[in-house]
Amino acid sequence: MEADDDEYVRPQVSIAYLQDLLISEYKLKIINYAELNGHEDRNYRIFCEETESTEHKSVFSQDQCESVCTRNSCSAIQTGVCSKYEYVVKVMDLVHSENFSSRSERIQMQMKVQDHLLDCGFVCPKVVPSSSGSVVQRFVTSEENVHYLTYMTKYIHGSTLFDITPLSNETLYEVGSLLAQLHCSLKDAVIPSLELKSASVWALENAFKIKDFVSKAELDAGEQSLVSAVLDHFAQNVLAQMTELPHGVIHGDFHDENILILGRRENNRITENLVSNSDQVVHIRSKYAAIDFADISYSPLVFDLAISASYFMMSHTRPDFIEIVGHFLCGYFMVRRPTPKEVRSLFASICAAFCREVVLAKHSYLEQSRSNSYLITAVDAGLRQLKEIWRIGQGDVMTVWSGIWERYGLTLENWCEEIVI
Known about the structure:
The chain is of the alpha+beta class. About 40% of the residues lie in helices and about 15% in strands.
């Protein structure tokens, strides 16, 4: 989420609105659609056909259309009706119509990041301009005069990592490598860093704002005390030295529902897209896709790592939830080596990321009248794990991870500055 999170209202979108948008802006007619998961915005997978000649087509075969991959049911597949034009439409409520310019500019920055990654061989969403050539649309509903901001990307076929359980250590390692490759590749992107500074309460550098929401998240006194202690520790030990941490463009929401493994699902198994090139970098970039870059920012790189690590723990609640993250971190460190300050800030940053999800997701769930169950998928697990990892403490957690890293030939003593691929 972006600035003014506390004022954000989740869009109430009808199929009539989507149909009007697609016809007027893209010359496409919806055959079927399915809503995808989302925190505050609305995301729709749509199946279309042309109403007029249009240039920006995403052409898929019938077999590809049938390889639906997420938990979201889709009547188009169930009924056998499918389209060769598949897209994802994101709809955001502007709250105040004057926000259009600033939010549109931020989305333009987001698209630049995605285009850069596409040029570097990554798989990520490709924006689809309207028939007039514009990327971001401002749309006003006639019946309620509500201002919406929308844009459309091509749909990517694959399965979210959330749907693949349990995740193997190899997969966790590869996904860590993918995140490091993203960071290294974005070092060369020509994107004004100041324009990617985030005012969002979801950004870890703004974690102090989380305290404003603690009392609204229905946490008991002990849980509120824990969150306060974690955030104070994070402020004193990380935020106070934040300028000394390596910065770059980060994804900001790199978790198992925003990472796809590419290929078809058959009998609840994934048949991966095979690549002949044995190079590990090419293999990983061809095997996975990263989606939903709405939270990109110019921030400490370790914050991206911490946010991802916390999500992997919360989403896959294995008893060894601390150990599994060691493989993810090692995959990252084998591509981009951390500085000593990043290593020292990792534990506190992960704990702060737990607080971020537990408090803000629970608050958003309550603000949306408990109607969006996706928001609290991992909240209960996150609270249990935060209590456990905080009780164990930084020293013992780092000992567990160091033991895993040593299996890959990494030790704290031989870590150096970053390796650029």
